[in-house]
Design a protein that fits this description.
By secondary structure, this protein is α/β, with parallel strands linked by helices. 45% of the residues lie in helices and 17% in strands. The chain has 14 helices and twelve strands. The strands form two sheets. A seven-stranded mixed β-sheet has the order 9-8-7-6-10-11-12, with helices on both faces. The chain has a five-stranded mixed β-sheet with strand order 1-2-4-3-5. The radius of gyration is 21 Å and the shape is globular.
């Protein structure tokens, strides 16, 4: 995934040049400090399987930048995870937290593993060993992990339980925990719910009243977004996952699709649907890419029918493809804004853990919507003022805030 990291840092350099950071702050080396992680932790873990054989897994934690607060970022469990991938994700998290105004820096963790190939006991041993190996590198005031692709509340509970063995204050060490162990109401749904909040803001800006929607990815983010959109009365005309895609131009029955996916592990073959060759290019008004990085390329960007794209995944659009979409007049809401709901509610959970006072779901969702709408309006206003894309505007706001923090804090 080296290409992912290269493209992520190149966009930061491009926007930093637009802002004139090096000219305005000579000798501060702000761009280098923005694009280079504070710390990179790599290790391998030997874990005993249930049959008493041993497997070796490669693991990472990248602490990108803590200028605005403690490091914050999820732990990805995926066989394709590598160090460059984790570095790029940590950089995006730094930008995301700065943009939406929460007092965290960026981090990311990863383990190169397919979690579906492990038993629950094997996965628990893996997560506990990951926590032990990180030791004092994580903590409620230094680096706070969270769920990401392949991990969830169960895995966060194991991290919390392992960490608490040697620490008096443990609950705020990790977010995305089960409610019973100090998790926040609304955290599991937060990223998908946030995508819908941002989509509604974009719809208001563009004057869209009842758009048709296609969703790539039917996991925690895409599935939640699809269910909420159907609940709002919008037609979701196509949905895809890792095994394939299905559609219906009259609108899918998302409840039935969810039940089918729960039973079979995929949306493919759901009764009453038709196979779709590529969910990214089906006729629709809105496209929600909610799966992996770089799925929108120079090959398929010219074929996309949607006039609004809201990026539920991290880095779903290649930079060259992004330029093609801009030239075609497609309105793109960038990932660091569109999928920030998860880290915002993770921040809410961290606050609730530290206060020992817990909010209702209504409180969480109201505060989440307020933060996302505020960030959206600031990005949209700057994009209009400077006649730049929403992505460039989002990066400008995030980088300017981080750079100001660097200058204010000094380097001693």
């Amino acid at each position: 995934m080296t290409d992912t990291l290269h493209k992520a840092t190149e966009l930061v350099r491009e926007v930093a040049d637009m802002l004139g950071l090096e000219r305005r702050h000579p000798g501060q080396r702000l761009v280098e400090r923005l694009t280079t992680p504070d710390r990179v932790i790599t290790f391998r873990m030997a874990v005993q399987r249930d049959d008493r054989s041993v497997d070796v897994f490669h693991a990472y934690r990248v602490q990108h930048l803590d200028i605005l607060g403690p490091y914050k970022g999820g732990i990805r469990l995926h066989p394709a995870v590598d160090l460059a991938d984790v570095k790029a994700l940590a950089l995006w998290m730094t930008l995301k937290t700065a943009l939406v105004g929460i007092p965290f820096g960026g981090a990311k963790g990863g383990i190169a593993v397919d979690p579906t190939t492990l038993s629950a006991q094997e996965l628990e041993r893996l997560m506990r060993k990951y926590t032990i190996r990180l030791g004092e590198d994580i903590g409620p005031s230094s680096d706070i992990p969270a769920p990401d692709m392949g991990s969830g509340a169960r895995e966060m509970a194991w991290i919390y339980d392992e960490y608490r063995k040697g620490h008096a204050v443990a609950r705020p060490v990790v977010t995305g925990k089960p409610i019973e162990l100090g998790g926040s109401a609304g955290r599991r749904e937060a990223t998908g719910h946030g995508v819908v909040c941002v989509l509604q803001a974009a719809m208001r800006q563009l004057g869209m009243s009842a758009p048709t929607v296609a969703v790539q990815g039917f996991g925690n983010v895409g599935g939640q977004a699809a269910r909420e959109l159907a609940g709002l009365g919008l037609k979701v005309v196509a949905v895809g996952d890792a095994r394939g895609a299905v559609g219906d131009p009259r609108g899918l029955d998302i409840a039935a699709l969810s039940a089918h996916a729960e039973r079979t592990g995929s949306v493919v073959g759901c009764p009453g649907t038709e196979p779709v060759a590529d969910v990214l290019t089906v006729p629709c008004d809105v496209l929600l890419p909610c799966a992996m990085e770089h799925v929108i390329t120079t090959t398929n960007a010219p074929l996309i029918k949607a006039r609004l794209i809201v990026e539920g995944a991290n880095g779903p659009c290649e930079p060259d493809a992004d330029r093609i979409l801009t030239e075609r007049g497609v309105f793109v809401v960038p990932d660091i804004l569109a999928n920030a709901g998860g880290v915002i509610v993770s921040y809410f959970e961290w606050v609730q853990n530290r206060e020992g006072f817990y909010w209702t779901l209504a409180d969480v969702n109201t505060r989440l919507a307020e933060r996302l709408d505020d960030a959206y309006q600031r990005v949209a206003a700057l994009a209009k003022e400077r006649r730049i894309s929403m992505r460039q505007a989002a990066y400008c706001l995030a980088i300017e805030k981080i750079a100001s923090g660097m200058v204010m804090r000094g380097v001693q």
